[in-house]
Amino acid sequence: xxxxxxxxxxxxxxxxxxxxxxxxxxxxxxxxxxxxxxxxxxxxxxxxxxxxxxxxxxxxxxxxxxxxxxxxxxxxxxxxxxxxxxxxxxxxxxxxxxxxxxxxxxxxxxxxxxxxxxxxxxxxxxxxxxxxxxxxxxxxxxxxxxxxxxxxxxxxxxxxxxxxxxxxxxxxxxxxxxxxxxxxxxxxxxxxxxxxxxxxxxxxxxxxxxxxxxxxxxxxxxxxxxxxxxxxxxxxxxx
Length: 239
Known about the structure:
With 239 residues, the protein is of the alpha/beta class. The chain has helices at 2-33, 37-40, 43-55, 84-92, 111-117, 128-141, 171-176, 188-191, 221-234; strands at residues 58-63, 75-78, 97-102, 121-123, 147-150, 180-186, 202-208. Helix 5 (111-117) links the parallel strand 3 and strand 4 (121-123). The longest helix has 32 residues, at 2-33.
C-alpha cells in the first residue's frame, strides 16, 4: 500500500501540485496587476491550499469561525508544525489575510512573484529604514477587514512541540492596536514535518480562538504573548 501511495505521489500528486502552483501564481499576478489584488491575492489561494490537502488525502476541520468577523482586521498567530500549516490556513481559515514572511521567499519562482504581486508582507530587518518600510507596507495592507497571519515561532518545529515565541511577530498588533487571534494547528506535524519531503494522509484540526482585544492603553507585549501562547496550547493534545 505504501509503495502504491509513493507511486501516486510521484506520478500524479507532484505534477498536479506543481501545475496548480504555477497556474495560481499566474492568475494572482495578472489579477493583481488589473487592480483586484485583494480578491486575487486570497481566493485563488484558498482553492490552491485545498487542492494540496485533497491530493494528499489530508482532511482539515476548522472550528471557531464564530469568533471572528469578516470585516475586522486581525493579527492571527499560529503554531508552526509543518508545511501543511500554510495550505490548511489558506484553505480553511475563512478570513481574507496576508502573510508576514521571510524576505528570502520573494526569490522563489512563481510563488515569490505571486506573493509580491498580491501584497504579502516581506519582513526585511536588514536596517532601520528597511524595517520602517516593512511597517509602512503592513499599515497599507491591514485595512478594510484585511488581516495578517504570523507564525511567532519563526520556523517549523523539529519535534511537534511549540518553540519559543518571538516578540517581532506581535509588533504590528502592538503598533497598530489590533486584536490578536490565536490559532491552534494540530496534526500538520504528522502530515509533513520539516524533515520529510512528501506528505502522508492525515487529519489537521484548526482551532480559532477568541480574539485578544487591545486594552484602552494598548497591548502589553509580554501579556499578549503569554495569553496567545496559552490559548494555542489549550487546544493541543496533552500526553
